[in-house]
Amino acid sequence: MLNHCFLCRNEDLKEMLESSKESLKLEAMKRIVGLIAKGKNASELFPAVVKNVASKNIELKKLVYVYLVRYAEEQQDLALLSISTFQRALKDPNQLIRASALRVLSSIRVPIIVPIMMLSIKEASTDLSPYVRKTAAHAIQKLYSLDPDQKEHLIEVIEKLLKDKSTLVAGSVVMAFEEVCPDRIDLIHKNYRKLCNLLVDVEEWGQVVIIHMLTRYARTQFVSPWREDAVFDENSEKAFYDSEEERRVDQSKPYIMDPDHRLLLRNTKPLLQSRNTAVVMAVSQLYWHLAPKHELSIITKSLVRLLRSHREVQYIVLQNIATMSIQRKGMFEPFMKSFYVRSTDATHIKTLKLEILTNLANEANISTILREFQTYVKSQDKAFAAATIQAIGRCATNISEVTDTCLNGLVLLLSNRDETVVAESVVVIKKLLQTQPSQHSDIIKHMAKLFDNITVSMARASILWLMGEYCEHVPKIAPDVLRKMAKTFTSEEDIVKLQTVNLAAKLYLTNSKQTKLLTQYILNLGKYDQSYDIRDRTRFIRQLIVPNEKSGALSKYARRILMAPKPAPVLQSAFKDRDRFQLGTLSHSLNSQANGYLELSDWPAVAPDQSVRIVEVVEPAGAPVFGKSKPGKSDEKFYSDSEEEEEEEEEGSSSEDSSTLACLSEENSDDSNKSSSSQSDSEKKKKTLKNKKLQQQKPDSKDSHDLALFLSQLHSFFLNQFLASSPVFVPETSRELLHRMTGKGLSAQYRFTRQPCIYGNSMVSLQLTLSNSSDQALENIHISEKSSTGRDIHRFNASERLEPQASVTVSMGVDFNDSTQAANFQLCTKEDEFSVSIQPAVGELLLPITMSEADFTKEQSKLVGMNESSATITMTPENVSSQSVNRKVVSVANLGVIPSSQENIHRFAGKTVSSGCLVLVSVALKDPDAVITINTENTVMASMLLRQFKTALTNSGP
Amino acid sequence: MIHSLFLVNASGDIFLEKHWKSVVSRSVCDYFFEALERATEPENVPPVIPTPHHFLINVLRHRIYFVAVIQSEVPPLFVIEFLHRVVDTFQDYFGVCSEAAIKDNVVVVYELLEEMLDNGFPLATESNILKELIKPPTILRTVVNTITGSTNVGEQLPTGQLSVVPWRRTGVKYTNNEAYFDVVEEIDAIIDKSGSTITAEIQGVIDACVKLTGMPDLTLSFMNPRLLDDVSFHPCVRFKRWEAERILSFIPPDGNFRLLSYHVSSQNLVAIPVYVKHNISFREGSSQGRFELTLGPKQTMGKAVESVLVSSQLPRGVLNANLSPSQGTYTFDPVTKLLSWDVGKINPQKLPSLKGSVSLQTGASKPDENPTINIQFKIQQLAISGLKVNRLDMYGEKYKPFKGIKYMTKAGKFQVRT
């Protein structure tokens, strides 16, 4: 009947579909979708539906697609009719139509069209629209599941799409990679840095997939950042053969993290703030598997935050926290209270929280935890109460201080009215007594007293076992219990019967006088029991303990067999070995390997070639190159996608500021370069770029650089008659301030940044790099208040704590008062003080300025006589070129280049930092000689500078 | 990734199925039903259930189980988060996410599911993109559609999906430009028998309703951003700006969205705005028990405590309750043993109380645990942590928007042990 009706309706629908009215067709399709949704079979309508695949009505078309994808597999021949429509749509000028055509085409699981799909995917993967390319990435997986033989071709497409720079594509193509060829890690190398940098802007689902993939990648490519463990143990064999000395050298070699490893950690960190719980979990597992142990703590807060989310999210997060908390209690201990159980939690959430609380228990917090547990024991949810008792048992074995307290608490629970609670307590007490082989006979006596009231068989069996095991401690009670058991033996459960037989045997051996007859009786009962297990046991025990002429050598050892000291059971967490699975995975959640789980490899002992990840920059030397090629400075912008135009409008105001600065500096350097026709183009460009880069770094650098302050600094230089300009050249070399041997692990290096100091107009700005090469963290690194030489020093902010192997860069300012005398001060840690001194090269006491050539000559004419010093030198041939002269001069001293109209005269200008007096340098080339002239009021400085220039210009080399 | 989805109602019937790859027989749900039977409470069904060939990941919302079928390794949170997103979308579209609503709108549901996943991998989950693709049903539109035969599916193709700000569509226009922000804080607390706080923390969210023309760029700053200990953002918030300046800078999505959720640092002492005096006692051997509750305000900064609702799961042995409230109404369900008391507003002059006796099953032993009391309340115009918005500025557009900020404090999981 029903069937008939259904057929009727189908006829009905068919008619509607064949009518000429759009609205009727649509209505029919809606009903059909309703049928599909209910799981009813509507396959026989296929021919009627497929006709409408090319309909103009979008909704109708979409519903037809839904139908087609659902039934194409069953109606392959008819499905082929629709293919040409999609092929046509693939050529549509609208990207969204192309994408949707590819989407449906690739979803039709008909093997005949595999070649067509392959072709379409290949075409779409080079489409101009990133959205179509994204669809192509999805189609790869579909085709692969339809026809795995296409793997090789598909890998080619994946390889191509991995190079894609669009954030839209990244997530989807990595998904395809994971599904089709997760072992082809070599495809990732060249894209690694790009993926890291794009990650923040990829859509959230893609982020999860990419993070999981990068976790696996990093474990194969970088060496372990976990110093103390694993690495050396694994190499122990090798180390064994090495000479002792070599090994020591090896060990003291500090671990330096691969910059790419660091890049990954740095770029994933902001994602901990994502609203998507899966992303937060993915980042957390990445840190767990890849980050140095001391950096792990940053994930704690985020994980705890997830506990506020839905019940299911809590469940997964708690499972992962449980695994983490076994290995690293410290991570979650401050958040212990977040794991307190609420009466409204679901049972599995409660048990997981309990698990974590137990893992977190230590001597310091155990009393709080136990107090909390006491509330839980009284819970109405008895399964949970039982779990709490087990947890108490685990705390008691792990923390010996509280064993007795716990035991007493558990004994009190024995008089609880609830059976499951009592039973669980007995079982746990049994385990505890076993681990505590001391005098707990009173507890055993107490349990014997309660024995009559306990009906749960497991508990009864446990008590009987305890009686037997410690029958010597309770010589009077044990036989009595046995007597009672003899009465009720036949009505007991199997496990209780077995333990009764055990008890009888043990008593027979220790106290045969009192219990001989009882034992005989029980053994007889057992002999005719229904369960063969019990009959077997009885027979075995009888042969073992009752001496007769036939019994062999074994009965001599009966006592030793039955009464042997037994090892105590180990109470441990169910999450103990879960960490064999990557956290956050389905396999971890289930504690068994799921289909398609990809093993996380161990760290390699030696890092594979790092250079594979280097990408040749093919872009022309344009401004953004610096930002990109330097992974250290990640893009300041948040919505950074180089492909999209909207980008421009959206940049935060901070980056706008920096670009105005860059403009400013560009102008300056352009000025300075304008008329110096001798300078090659490339040199000019390089300088501009360098200036720009320096200026851009300014607002980037964290430690202070309030823009306003910086601008006011600039302003003050304007007042000083001539424009201060940014340095032409900044030496990268740093000098040693404190060696790590003298610094007891603390080492410090300094370099001159050649920037105007932000702390004071008369100060020279310095950059200090402090690193800790000891194996303990150094605390409170600062410069002592009482510095010796009376130099005015702006101290850097005390660095609270420097972890082992970590280093930190700070900036400070020193007023050298235009003299090269060393500034002495004390670099202090919490425990130690080290005297250090910085002696500046004379060239560092200058700041570059720009002026016109006319101004230069005018100023120079004022500074003659005493104020002029000059020398003639013979130039080495390679120094003759104007470029090399410029380079030599600016590397020695922080001077600005003045545009010069004469090819053979080079001019440079600067001013001293403290007093601000002008320093004008000119180099006149008269082949093969050169005359260096320095005009300044500060004659001491002039002579020192002159000497340095002489050496610089006469020396060959760079 | 996600192979299929089954929707199961409270009575255990599958009322909707959707497959993104080849069809999986609905018999796979038998394993789920087994787990459902074993669970004592609907919430106790484990979220991840392994079966011989598949894995079932389910979430329970609005008394509907959303059961996703998975075939191979996938981060379980990925699936769970997605399923919740599906529920949120349904709620957004139909106002409620109930079996009836889904059945009534089965075509829209199907269209949505089709757009949200491609081959089991999330494609479009942003609500504003979806709304461009498929228009939410309204009564007016349904009427118009039946008359004119036009459709719910957007004629235009979405632009949001292709832009760098996928959460906002282009060409938004309003005559009244307004931006409202609700700062809502929830107090989670466990109070012990003696009234001392065992644990208390404040979680907050800032929900926004932004109806602004064009592409506005907003910045929101706080008087005391240091209070915020741990935050998570809508993807529109520029993280770098927050890190550097503690300012929320963002191009908002159109309409309602959650801008920020935060946790107030645990160093700050949490003000507990209500206290409970209770006297619940059962005597051994007697079939009567005493039950007395009195509520009172404390540390409310002068604001009224409203919409107070007290609920408690009484022990299984309780047969009935005979109580008299000084205000509001109470109900006791003898089957589930759930007592709930709708108090309303707390008047500090006349504290609300609920007194009386409860009758126990004769012969049943005295319950060993006193019930836990759950309290819900609301305090308007107060963020209990003291968080204050400093200013809201708009850049990028010329008009002057109307701005509004509202504060509210609510009880989250607020439990009193007795």
Automatic annotation (TrEMBL), chain A:
Residues 845-954 form the Beta-adaptin appendage C-terminal subdomain domain. InterPro entries: AP3_beta (IPR026740), AP3B1/2_C (IPR056314), AP3B_C (IPR029390), AP_beta (IPR026739), ARM-like (IPR011989), ARM-type_fold (IPR016024), B-adaptin_app_sub_C (IPR015151), Clathrin/coatomer_adapt-like_N (IPR002553). Residues 641-654 have a biased composition (Acidic residues). Residues 623-703 are annotated as: Disordered. Residues 685-695 have a biased composition (Basic residues). Subunit of non-clathrin- and clathrin-associated adaptor protein complex 3 (AP-3) that plays a role in protein sorting in the late-Golgi/trans-Golgi network (TGN) and/or endosomes. The AP complexes mediate both the recruitment of clathrin to membranes and the recognition of sorting signals within the cytosolic tails of transmembrane cargo molecules. AP-3 appears to be involved in the sorting of a subset of transmembrane proteins targeted to lysosomes and lysosome-related organelles. This is AP-3 complex subunit beta. It comes from Cyprinus carpio.
From TrEMBL, chain B:
InterPro entries: Adaptor_comp_med_subunit (IPR050431), AP2_Mu_C_sf (IPR036168), AP_mu_sigma_su (IPR022775), Clathrin_mu (IPR001392), Clathrin_mu_CS (IPR018240), Longin-like_dom_sf (IPR011012), MHD (IPR028565). This is AP-3 complex subunit mu-2-like. CDD domains: AP3_Mu_N. GO terms for biological process: intracellular protein transport; vesicle-mediated transport. Belongs to the adaptor complexes medium subunit family. It is found in: Cytoplasmic vesicle membrane; Golgi apparatus. One of its GO terms (cellular component) is Golgi apparatus. It comes from the Eukaryota. The keyword Thylakoid does not apply. Its main location: membrane. Residues 176-417 form the MHD domain. Transmembrane segments: none annotated.
